[in-house]
Design brief:
In chain A, about 70% of the residues lie in helices and about 0% in strands. Chain A has five helices and no strands. Chain B is mainly α. Classes of the chains: A mainly alpha (about 170), B mainly alpha (about 425). The interface between A and B is large, with 54 and 56 residues.
């Protein structure tokens, strides 16, 4: 959460700069998605009362939730705020702590590489499927996995760089 | 082979892999070992979050944050103080009652503790209450935040167990009132023993002024809970209305929210709920592994053979496991992992799933006040500047009171089920 070392600006490696700016953009998009989700769900109530019930609003809210959640998970990887157990690793020596932290990030990269890769496969194989209410191709839904999977991998890789430099443990 | 999935999960968790990722990677081991095609991974992650009931989660988190930071909870606390402050130890009662009331707007324990704590702790300090005792009281009363509806853990349980959110919400009132009542009784006893001061009686006009000022906030539970229980809105819709309403009150009526603060609250609520959603999604993967090795059934069998088919013992063991999990794990993660594991056992002994939903919610809520992992104590410690240890000592008797309420609700299920049975069909 605290971004120490940002003053070093000029000497920062490209990976860090990229990860920072992608994250700034992600936070803005997350804000927008949250507002949209609130707006759509509110409109659903409003239309049911005064006009006719909307047929697509629940489906849209659900997909917005899935997208906002994956995006929020990416921001959380950047901030290092994912819920983790730390009372064991705190007892290790500093060198070992660093090694374990790098391993944790590598395992994360492995997981999201699979999510991103097979998400891309699904974009192709499920392209002819459409969502029940809005009738959009499932390719658009599955696209979030390769895109945001890559964002998370970027943050985790940049995180490894920071750990090795000693900026974050 | 079943030990592989739990073994790798615990190993990953202990080396500091985030819980959601530990669950996902452990499930991946099963996928690879048993040749389940990996396309199932993104498909299952999507399925795990694609539920309209879960839309309530980010909304209740955000509404709770707006309540705490938008000047609404302060005014509710000020009104409660005006009416009850003049009793000896009155501010302690105000802490608990305000927590119970704010619990009826907020769906999380941490938000409830933050809302009441930041409004009352500074004042408790100047009025010569013991700060460690007061911080412990507010931290333990914060647990009521998830028992009195609305409640994020109840939404998660409802989705996992396939139960009705509204029924679970309805079932939360009596246990929440018992928790609050127990804490108030203890606080009064301590206040008399230690001679805590009684506040001065405020003039009627001042009480009235504070009532009017708090009125907007006081209306919130009426709108949210009234809307859910009369069937006007679904719980997720009510959660969106709660955000709209608290936002309008904080921004237009109280004028205590500018764009900067609002942006930050929305993004942080988005991230906080994403942490939970990520665990829900990967837990769905984990569910494949559990089902593959029929682990929940094996656990049900083990529990029954250890307890010799004694229902009393089975509930006791389940409660102990829930309380231990609550000490070491964050509430939502523990709930997401434990619920599917215990469901077959509960069904096997003919238990009621609404009743069990309340037990796991109360048990894990108590975990918010039991170190080492205790979010309510963290929040109270951040507000007061006291260490975790300083708050952890006076909280022991309070936690014991809450555990007594848990056991009471376990063995007298009608305490939990009477309201939903009275007002709703099919419980």
């Amino acid at each position: 959460m605290n971004r120490t070392g940002q003053e070093e600006g000029a000497s920062r490696p490209l990976l860090q700069i990229l990860s920072d700016s992608v994250n700034r953009l992600s936070e803005r998009l997350l804000f927008f998605l949250m507002l949209l989700m609130i707006g759509v769900t509110t409109a659903q109530v409003f239309f049911r009362f005064f006009f006719e019930a909307l047929t697509w609003s629940e489906e849209l809210s659900c997909f917005l939730l899935v997208l906002a959640s994956l995006l929020g998970a990416a921001v959380a990887f950047k901030r290092g705020s994912h819920i983790a157990v730390s009372f064991v690793t705190q007892k290790l020596s500093p060198v070992l702590q660093k090694g374990v932290a790098v391993l944790v990030n590598l395992l994360g990269i492995l997981f999201f590489a699979i999510v991103a890769g097979y998400g891309a496969v699904l974009m192709k194989t499920e392209a002819s499927q459409t969502t029940p209410a809005m009738m959009i191709s499932m390719s658009w839904i599955y696209a979030m996995y390769p895109v945001l999977g890559a964002v998370i991998i970027l943050h985790l890789a940049a995180g490894i760089g920071e750990i090795l430099k000693g900026g974050r443990s | 082979m079943g030990w592989v999935i739990f073994g790798s999960f615990f190993l990953l968790m202990l080396i500091g892999v985030p819980i959601g990722l530990s669950i996902g990677l452990a499930a991946l081991v099963v996928f690879l070992a048993s040749g389940i095609p990996l396309q199932m991974v993104p498909q299952t992650l999507l399925e795990g979050n694609n539920s309209f009931a879960l839309v309530a989660v980010p909304f209740f988190v955000l509404a709770g944050d707006i309540l705490a930071r938008g000047g609404i909870s302060e005014r509710i606390v000020a009104f409660a103080e005006a009416t009850l402050g003049r009793i000896r130890g009155g501010l302690s009662i105000v802490s608990v009652l305000a927590s119970m009331f704010i619990a009826a707007i907020s769906g999380s324990g941490a938000a409830t503790t933050a809302a009441v704590g930041s409004a009352l702790l500074p004042e408790l300090k100047t009025k010569k209450y013991d700060v460690d005792f007061s911080a412990a009281l507010i931290a333990s009363a914060g647990t009521i935040g998830v028992v009195i509806p609305p409640s994020v853990p109840m939404v998660l349980y409802a989705v996992i167990a396939g139960e009705s959110v509204a029924k679970l919400f309805m079932a939360g009132f009596i246990p929440g009132a018992l928790m609050g009542g127990g804490l108030i009784a203890y606080a009064l006893w301590i206040a008399n023993r230690r001679g805590y001061p009684a506040g001065e009686r405020l003039p009627g006009a001042e009480v009235g002024r504070r009532f009017v000022s708090a009125l907007w906030g006081l209306m919130t539970p009426v709108i949210i809970l009234g809307g859910i229980f009369t069937g006007v809105f679904t719980p997720s819709e009510a959660a969106a209305i709660a955000v709209d309403y608290t936002l309008l009150v904080a921004w237009l009526v109280y004028r205590s929210l500018d764009f900067r603060k609002f942006y930050e609250l929305v993004v942080n609520a988005g991230v906080t709920s994403a942490l939970i959603m990520f665990i829900i999604a990967t837990a769905k993967l984990f569910g494949w592994g559990l089902a593959f090795y029929q682990i929940p059934e094996a656990i049900a069998k083990t529990l029954m053979s250890v307890a010799g088919n004694n229902t009393f013992m089975i509930y006791l063991m389940i409660n102990v496991i829930i309380l231990l999990a609550g000490m070491f794990m964050e509430t939502a993660s523990a709930l997401i992992i434990l619920t599917p594991i215990f469901l077959p056992a509960i069904l096997g002994i003919g238990g009621n799933l609404i009743h069990f939903g309340l037990l796991i919610t109360i048990g894990l809520a108590i975990g918010m006040a039991t170190p080492p992992v205790a979010i309510d104590i963290y929040v109270a410690s951040a507000i007061t500047g006291l260490s975790m240890e300083e708050i952890s000592k006076p909280i022991v008797p309070m936690v014991l009171i809450l555990v007594a309420v848990l056991l009471l609700c376990t063995y007298v299920p009608s305490l939990v089920l009477v309201l939903p049975r009275l007002f709703m069909a099919g419980v």
